[in-house]
């Protein structure tokens, strides 16, 4: 008797819940799916606002480097290669032994932080490459920041000059709108991309988010050995934009004394002497060697009109600027307010330096995070269409990670809050997030800020190369 009553009671309350849910679906607020669809159509509208038809294709020069990416499941590769699980996460600047590889992977895998490491032991690296070939799901793709960005830009309608030494196989997968400056090579540098999805398990660890751990043992890229060929073609090419990236390949590489500085000086000279009518953009990447970062602050950043980086690289650069250490790991899910505060601070710090001969004011700063895209542009500077560019960067983030031009909102989620504060300062304005106009732009001081949410892809195809595609997509609408 008692049992039946209890059963009826709970059935009744279940029915009430069901009814409430049904009512909400019918008449109440839009469902999550409808909200996502509105965000998508609004972002697509913002992206499409810029009419690029009928104008001359923009000319963009981009360096440096190139490689063959081997993309594998990270955990499967470690297992195939017989690399044992390590319960001691250690931050190594470069990798010499199997033990160090396991310790380093253990450091980045649980938080799901992107990283890239030089392997100084050729035997170890060759062993990993041959293990990767045994994995059924391994894929090859054209890799390296510059070629990835070049292909993206060509696809968006640009004429591109690419500085990098590629193999003939690699050149075959480049768009016909790309001219390569740099002698061909027989053996391309290989980058092993150890991808892992959110929730992946390795020994006792679970990955907090999808990301990748990259290992390489490059010979060509650290020397930027296409630089001279690139420089000699650059002046005739007369690009609207010069993009510099791929310098992280110099990180922790065993250079001879003074060798790296000499290469960076040559690049500095190129950036100093290029016509003022050419905008310059530097794309940062994961750097761990503090001295290299300091060199970038000296040789590259003061000559850049624009900088692009992710949420890990921003606090590193800022900290270094203020005389501190590089932080290595930072919050992978930062709030909008804290990113904006860091962006303002970096923008003001860089622009408070006195300009020396050939140096440029920073007029554009693009930060790509998993949850949102943020761009700061100086008012009255060369950069156009900031709102559309932010929307395009955000859409590209989904397209890249899901591996499809067509965005499917059932395979995406929004992880930005319903509203965000424009600063962590007390009493700061809060901006509500509106599905029908998801890109928020406003002016402050001498610049404009735009923020767009990312429809975060939930069925990850590839995270590597994301930053490059996203940055390139943002830039193409701004020149
Ligand atoms: C390089 O890696 C191989 C394969 O793991 C290992 O046998 C060798 O000891 C390593 N060399 C050094 C110098 O650590
Ligand atoms: C910062 O760098 C200095 C010098 O390299 C080092 O001694 C110190 O331990 C570092 N501090 C942190 C917090 O990493
Ligand atoms: C989604 C997207 O655009 N991904 C591209 C990133 O760039 C590489 C190289 O151009 C392309 O192969 C991807 O399709």
TrEMBL record:
Cellular-component GO terms for this entry: endoplasmic reticulum
Protein name: ADP-dependent glucokinase-like
InterPro entries assigned: ADP_PFK/GK, Ribokinase-like
Domain of life, per lineage: Eukaryota
Keyword Transferase in annotation: yes
Single GO MF descriptor: ADP-specific glucokinase activity
GO biological process: glucose metabolic process; glycolytic process
The entry's keywords: Cytoplasm, Glycolysis, Kinase, Magnesium, Metal-binding, Signal, Transferase
Signal peptide: 1-27
Lineage: Eukaryota, Metazoa, Chordata, Craniata, Vertebrata
